[in-house]
């Protein structure tokens, strides 16, 4: 590559990083806003979150277009190619995090805070832990910091523990409040969505680690957290 | 492109299609097997499904490697590039469908068929509808058939209706059987996983349509199905 090509590549990859940071900021804000709408049973705010998800989707399309153009025109090799592919995949994951915020917003109408006060108070704390992971992992991506990525993976254990505790709390709540079972079931899905946000942040952390080092972080346990039977 | 390049591209894209067909077959079989393990409370079969998911993940990595090589070396334009990007994204979605089978398998231990016979009988029928969509959409991809892709999207409505009906059945069951609430909650997640399989097949259908025609199928309602409050 000549100097001009290198500079053009750096500009493109900088643009990719900027788009992903923008997506991440929107996804994080959408999750915070969904918790707020839930607490206040604010249907208008929920509708805005659902509608706002389109913006994240559009940014993902822009990332794809740019990444494909970059691969096709600049034919990056090794490290650079690994970084473009990581950006493409990270954008896909952040888009899914945005979808979780949208899904939570869709449940606002189904949950009336007054009748399910107790378990409702646990969700925002869990949401904070999950969005914290998203923020940290995107910072790690921007800084190409593999150590920060490892720390994000460690945070995921706390989110999983929190999820298991909410699952048990909600099942107990259902047993004691059969009239609120439908609402509690919706809250169970919200807790699961937040747990998945943590999983996705972990996935991104692994991609950041791989893009920065060329090595895999090792076979960590991924995927759905299933509390033990009878819990 | 000269004749040699065209032929090499066709071979590569054929290999991509073959890998995706293989992934789809494995994902479909994993969902069927998870229903079977659930009905028979077969923990060994469940463990095999969980372990087998790695194979689908490895195939996705192979698709990525091949697609990136194809874009970088052959620099495909317009229609061809659209098809490679579609293949890349479709592989990602099929990998997620495999994850749902794994997640269902993880819940086998938490569900004892004897105490939840009634709602348990509904899940395999829903699973059949969802895997039918997966099979049809991968056939549509192999045949580059946009009309078949549209039909897959239409099938998704039936899966969503089924999900809403299972949600109501399970909530009623929980009210009447407070001791089985934890198990019923796991079944709710299984039903939700199957509903998401249908959504993902719909996403793939839209990619197949776009890859084949260059047009978007139109703004269909996507994402999480949330039954109405009080249902």
Task: Describe the protein in words.
- The structure is a homodimer of 231-residue chains.
- Chain A has 231 residues and is mainly α.
- The first copy, chain A, has a single domain, classed as Methane Monooxygenase Hydroxylase, Chain G, domain 1 (Up-down Bundle).
- Chain A is 82% helix and 0% strand.
- In chain A, α2 (43-74) runs antiparallel to α3.
- The longest helix of chain A is centred in the first third of the chain and has 38 residues, at 3-40.
- The radius of gyration of chain A is 19 Å and the shape is elongated.
- The A-B interface holds A 64, 68, 71-72, 75-76, 81, 85, 89, 92, 99, 102-103, 106-107, 109-112, 167, 170-171, 174-175, 178-179, 181-183, 185-186, 188-189, 192, 223-224, 226-231 and B 64, 68, 71-72, 75-76, 81, 85, 89, 92, 99, 102-103, 106-107, 109-112, 167, 170-171, 174-175, 178-179, 181-183, 185-186, 188-189, 192, 223-224, 226-231.
- Chains A, B: Belongs to the PhoU family.
- Chains A, B: It is found in: Cytoplasm.
- Chains A, B: Its main location: cytoplasm.
Summarize the structure.
Two copies of one chain form a homodimer. With 231 residues, chain A is an all-alpha fold.
Based on Cα principal axes, name the global outline of chain A: elongated
Distance between the termini of chain A: 59 Å
Q: Helix/strand/pairing class of chain A, anyone? A: mainly alpha
How many strands, what sense, and barrel or not for the largest sheet of chain A? Answer: none
Contiguous runs where pLDDT drops below 50 for at least 5 residues of chain A: none
What is the number of independent domains of chain A? 1
CATH topology of chain A: Methane Monooxygenase Hydroxylase, Chain G, domain 1
**CATH class category of chain A:** Mainly Alpha
CATH architecture of chain A: Up-down Bundle
What portion of the residues of chain A fall into strands of 2 or more residues?
under 5%
Share of helix of chain A, binned: over 70%
State the oligomer: homodimer
**How many strands in all of chain A?**
0
The two chains with the largest interface, and their residue counts, are: A-B, 42 and 42 residues
Radius of gyration of chain A: 19 Å
Q: How many helix segments of chain A?
A: 7
Mean pLDDT of chain A: 88
Order of helices and strands of chain A: HHHHHHH
The CATH superfamily name of chain A is Phosphate transport system protein phou homolog 2, domain 2
């Amino acid at each position: 590559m000549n100097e001009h090509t290198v500079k053009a590549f750096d500009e493109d990859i900088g643009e990719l990083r900027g788009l992903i940071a923008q997506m991440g900021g929107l996804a994080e804000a959408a999750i915070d806003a969904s918790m707020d709408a839930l607490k206040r049973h604010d249907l208008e705010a929920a509708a805005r979150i659902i509608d706002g998800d389109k913006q994240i989707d559009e940014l993902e399309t822009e990332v794809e277009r740019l990444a494909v153009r970059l691969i096709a025109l600049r034919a990056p090799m090794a490290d650079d190619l690994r970084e473009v592919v990581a950006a493409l995949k990270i954008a896909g994951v952040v888009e899914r995090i945005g979808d979780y915020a949208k899904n939570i917003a869709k449940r606002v109408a189904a949950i009336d805070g007054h009748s399910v006060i107790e378990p409702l108070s646990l969700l925002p704390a869990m949401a904070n832990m999950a969005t914290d992971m998203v923020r940290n992992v995107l910072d790690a991506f921007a800084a190409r910091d593999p150590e920060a990525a490892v720390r994000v993976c460690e945070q995921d254990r706390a989110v999983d523990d929190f999820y298991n505790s909410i699952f048990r709390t909600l099942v107990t709540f259902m047993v004691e409040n059969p009239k609120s079972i439908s609402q509690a079931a919706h809250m169970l899905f919200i807790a699961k969505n937040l747990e998945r946000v943590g999983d996705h942040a972990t996935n991104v952390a692994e991609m950041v680690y791989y893009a920065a080092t060329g090595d895999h972080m090792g076979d960590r346990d991924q995927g759905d957290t299933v509390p033990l039977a009878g819990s």
